[in-house]
Amino acid sequence: MSNLPKIAWIGLGIMGSPMSENLIKAGYDVTGFTLEQDKLDRLAAAGGTAAKSIAEAVKDADVVITMVPASPQVEAISYGPEGILENAKSGALIIDMSSITPQTSVDLAKNAKEKGIRVIDAPVSGGEAGAIEAVLSIMVGGEQADFETAKPILEALGKTIVLCGPHGSGQTVKAANQLIVAVNIQACAEAVVFLEKSGVDLKAALDVLNGGLAGSTVLTRKKDNFLNRDFKPGFRIDLHHKDMGIVTDAARNVGASLPVGGVVAQLVASLRAQGDGGLDHSALLRAVERLSGNQVA
């Protein structure tokens, strides 16, 4: 029998499936629940246990990890008679790795405390590739003691793991991350169209740019997407649209001006309105191509 904590995993999407599998590889007992049967089958094939409900998944868990799309989904799985708070045991630790509003995290921690349940918010950056490779950056909000409890688990999922402050701080840092990533992708997309229209060897140009000050993790991860026009979703435009709404709203609340971020948020929204919401966020290239008069399939 393992002395490692028993883990319940709620949400087995593009990120959640490989992350839960990395915990299984690290020796953890993982019971999962999600709405898609094929994802439950994948978990079982990897050595995990598929549950039939949230209540069943969390009832014996020492740690409950959640990875769902947005605040409404976090609230739906956390509250109510079938939710986490009513069914997890007292003393359990919730690690919410979803990207949601800071206030949702603060409220969840407050409500969970009344049930004797601890919470940290721990959103991630690194996309599908980072999830698969277990090299995610994990930004955490919550109590120091709970962070220390969670850290060995998080170390099986990522490389950079930092406590950023009290509840909600992880979500605030994630919002800033999504601002930087969106602006970076937009700049790369504009450079790609500029280079192509100028008749430059695009692959050679991106290689040399990535070796200098213009280089970035975004360019490293998304270079092939741009070159091959491969926009299979690693992180969907729909989700980045949600995140840009979080960061612009949070910035307004604290009195921070985001002039470039505001423009990019509108470009993300326009791409989504044109039917590209299910594509990877590197598909911002498609928006630049349309604005530049290119035919986009």
Automatic annotation (TrEMBL):
Top-level taxon: Bacteria
Entries under Pfam families matching the protein: NAD_binding_11 (PF14833), NAD_binding_2 (PF03446)
Enzyme class: oxidoreductase
EC number of this enzyme: 1.1.1.60
Record field: transmembrane: none
The keyword Protease is assigned to this record: no
NCBIfam families assigned to the protein according to its UniProt record, in alphabetical order: tartro_sem_red
Protein name per Swiss-Prot or TrEMBL: 2-hydroxy-3-oxopropionate reductase
Lineage, uppermost ranks: Bacteria, Bacillati, Actinomycetota, Actinomycetes, Kitasatosporales
